């Protein structure tokens, strides 16, 4: 292992914190690597593999690695994960995740158990760049939903209203009101408007999320300084985009840090996102603390600070409605998840009891 230069992983986000996580594996002849793209039972990883031409490389080699079929933890890998691979290029260990963007899994199946599943979109992300096209009607509710996802991941969100060069009037004030504590910028990847400020805000590993047609891939290419990701025009009729990005893929940024481009999200279900909702709607929750009753529903109760703020115009009614909608959805999914866990525990205990009864019966027959 002494021939491996771990500093070559720095362009992919390697630092002393991940080195500490890898330390227990140092004697196992395992090599640290970062997942840059998933492909079913295989993944592309950046790894400092010692090869004949390794000394001439300026960065880690990108190689194809295999996933072991029997390890459920490793089978759940995603782009951005740090792993350890062996000399046969098989992933053998998953290093602890610092952050993870998680949504409720999308499923068209009628099986209610599917509502309890979740999907990790990206791991070890430091900045979540929420992208929305600024040249049309900006969906504030969708931005709030994505912000709840971003805050809950543990990363710092930033909102970018793209295509500023095509917009007549970008609703910056409305978006900023829907994103307390978050920097909101109008940018144009084509003309460079706002790009210098945006670049200065990005830290560590940056993940782009947003709907199809939001300009994520165009923005990613501008940040990377090269045409790395495919782009396409949106439909003129409904302004909806096509899925030009079909994989979540990680690339080093030229000024340091890394970037993960993701496919457009048409469905964004919240997954255990109570903390993210609290950060996204910090204005509503702050007002709620001043209501006369701690269980105030913000309807007809006297001394309701939330309703007073709505009546005075300090809080848009839409904010409260959105907060309620997303909170109900999150609570419902949490209840379904708890119900599934209880059902699975009950099934296990029934199987144990059945096996015990069988053993007692066999003992009785032998006696």
UniProtKB/TrEMBL annotation:
Domain CP-type G as annotated: residue spans: 114-268
Keywords: Cytoplasm, GTP-binding, Hydrolase, Metal-binding, Nucleotide-binding, Ribosome biogenesis, RNA-binding, rRNA-binding, Zinc
GO molecular function, one term: GTP binding
Enzyme Commission code: 3.6.1.-
Protein biosynthesis as UniProt keyword: no
Residue positions binding Zn(2+): 291, 296, 298, 304
One GO cellular component, as annotated: cytoplasm
GO biological process, one term: ribosomal small subunit biogenesis
Cofactor(s) demanded: Zn(2+)
Co-factor binding comment: Binds 1 zinc ion per subunit.
Compartment(s): Cytoplasm
Protein's UniProt keywords contain ATP-binding: no
PROSITE patterns cross-referenced by the UniProt entry: ENGC_GTPASE, G_CP
CDD domains from the UniProt entry: YjeQ_EngC
InterPro entries attached to this UniProt entry: G_CP_dom (IPR030378), P-loop_NTPase (IPR027417), Ribosome_biogen_GTPase_RsgA (IPR004881), RsgA_GTPase_dom (IPR010914)
Binding-site list for GTP: 162-165, 210-218
Annotated ranges, domain EngC GTPase: 123-266
Family: Belongs to the TRAFAC class YlqF/YawG GTPase family. RsgA subfamily.
Function: One of several proteins that assist in the late maturation steps of the functional core of the 30S ribosomal subunit. Helps release RbfA from mature subunits. May play a role in the assembly of ribosomal proteins into the subunit. Circularly permuted GTPase that catalyzes slow GTP hydrolysis, GTPase activity is stimulated by the 30S ribosomal subunit.
Oligomeric and partner information: Monomer. Associates with 30S ribosomal subunit, binds 16S rRNA.
Alphabetized NCBIfam families for the sequence: ribosome small subunit-dependent GTPase A
Name recorded for this polypeptide: Small ribosomal subunit biogenesis GTPase RsgA
Native source organism of the sequence: Nocardia yunnanensis
Gene behind this protein: rsgA
